[in-house]
Amino acid sequence: MKKVYSGIKNLIIGLFTTGKHLGRHAITVQYPTERWPMPERSRGIVVLLSDKETGELNCTTCLLCMRACPTAAIRIDYDKDEKGKRILKDFVVDQGICCFCGLCEEACNFAALKMATKYEFATYKSEDLIWHTDKLQEIGRDVPYEKPERKKPEAKPAAPKPAPAPNPLPAPEEKPETKDGSKPEVNDAN
Ligand code: SF4
Ligand code: SF4
């Protein structure tokens, strides 16, 4: 009997809660026909950014993002020219092992990589989650970003030269000269 009362009580509480929301605006959306706008700083897929004027990738192949990635989701293949400068061959992101930590974006000083607000990239094969340069660049083309201004470092005033350190050894005592200017004889009796 106790269980019956408890059940009726819970039913009334549930109906009361439902009744409270009957006249209110729905807080769910009919996905996929409706979607919530993602917050600007939400972390979705990793994409590559391009220069807005030239369309070229902003990446300088500095490798900082690859080294910052805790899951090794980023692989950068490059060549070197005759001056030793790195030339990007392929930028690969395995979206399947990315943990969306954002460390790669933080490490990049060139606005070359960003976690876009996009998130729909489900696939049946894990290999399809390995994205190469072309795909990363294409999906990143409409991603808004601000390129950081590079200021030249101001020349620092030259530091004052330190004062010469005092000589810890006492100056040698001057030996008295004889009348004719010759050195005094040393009594070497011992
Ligand atoms: S994306 Fe940024 S951090 Fe990564 S290699 Fe390119 S310039 Fe360096
Ligand atoms: S978000 Fe994190 S895990 Fe994903 S690629 Fe960037 S550093 Fe690696």
In short:
This protein has 190 residues and is of the alpha+beta class.
Describe the protein's topology.
Elements: H1 2-21, E1 46-48, H2 64-68, E2 74-80, E3 86-94, H3 103-107, E4 113-115, E5 130-131, H4 133-140
Antiparallel strand pairs: 1-4, 2-3, 3-5
One iron/sulfur cluster is lined by residues 46, 68-71, 73-74, 93, 98-104.
Distinctive features:
single chain; 190 residues; alpha+beta; Alpha-Beta Plaits; 20% helix; binds iron/sulfur cluster
Describe the structure.
With 190 residues, this protein is α+β, with helices and mostly antiparallel strands. The chain has a domain at 42-150: Alpha-Beta Plaits (2-Layer Sandwich), CATH 3.30.70.3270. The protein has 4 helices and 5 strands; from the N terminus they run αβαββαββα. The chain has a 3-stranded antiparallel β-sheet with strand order 2-3-5. Strands 1-4 form a two-stranded antiparallel ribbon. It starts with a helix and ends in a 50-residue tail after the last helix. One iron/sulfur cluster binds at residues 46, 68-71, 73-74, 93, 98-104.
